[in-house]
Amino acid sequence: MKVIRTKNYQEMSKMAANFILDKVKSSSELTLGLATGGTPVQTYHYLAKDYQEQKTSYQHVTTFNLDEYIGLDPSDPNSYHYYMDKHFFSKVNIPSDQTFIPNGLAENLEKECQAYDEEIKKHNGIDLQLLGLGTNGHVGFNEPGTAFDQHTHIVALTESTMQANARFFNNINQVPNRAITMGIASIMESKEILLLVSGKEKNDALNKLLHGEIDKHFPASVLNQHENVTIIADEDAIINTNL
Ligand SMILES: N[C@@H]1[C@@H](O)[C@H](O)[C@@H](COP(=O)(O)O)O[C@@H]1O
């Protein structure tokens, strides 16, 4: 894994946006895996800014989001559909039929998961997967203990993830307790991975990822087995990691 060190969150975000823009500009077709959460917000902001200023086109880009809460309508401000529209899709020229996010309202959730995997396959897999890191090592919504061989599936969220995400809701009781997420196998099948890590609260998690064992109780550790991972981390996340 290649680790790029940045001064702060802004610098991490700018570098991540440039990393993605390089791929967007140099490919005739590109399938991006996208993440939500607090970490990539400024990355999307810089992509939107680039579009405003440089008009980098996304007509040839297809996107697959990692996850979505079960039970939230796309118009719900806490849904990842809403998040993606707000921060990215509405700001660039990506055609709406080229953006995929799991449907957390599907009548048959199992079928929805299978259909999502099929769609990814149809697009020849993901070229670049953007990832954030949960404080407990989760990636997407793959919580500690998730088997490494799973594709898109339904998960029960842990108390710690619900607590961590409660800041986006009015109170923790409104945080859905289930989600659909691409699995560890889906993530590992992507050709390249870009992991963003920012802030002191991610310090332990980054340390474990870099120096700990590969263990399903710390899902992100599996990334050590992928051959093309770049981590962009800021000083606060890196401190005490011996880097
Ligand atoms: N499902 C999301 C993940 O995709 C995200 O990467 C992670 C970290 O979130 P944040 O960037 O807000 O710390 O947790 C959330 O629960």
UniProtKB/TrEMBL annotation:
The residues that cross the membrane are none
Domain Glucosamine/galactosamine-6-phosphate isomerase intervals:
11-229
One BP annotation, GO: carbohydrate metabolic process
Pfam families in the record: Glucosamine_iso
Q: Which reaction does it catalyse?
A: alpha-D-glucosamine 6-phosphate + H2O = beta-D-fructose 6-phosphate + NH4(+)
A molecular-function term among this protein's GO annotations: glucosamine-6-phosphate deaminase activity
Q: What is this enzyme's EC?
A: 3.5.99.6
Q: What class of enzyme is it?
A: hydrolase
Q: Which GO terms describe its cellular component?
A: cytoplasm
Pathway note: Amino-sugar metabolism; N-acetylneuraminate degradation; D-fructose 6-phosphate from N-acetylneuraminate: step 5/5
NCBIfam families recorded: nagB
Matching HAMAP family, A to Z? GlcN6P_deamin
The protein depicted here goes by the name Glucosamine-6-phosphate deaminase
Q: Which organism is it from?
A: Gracilibacillus salitolerans
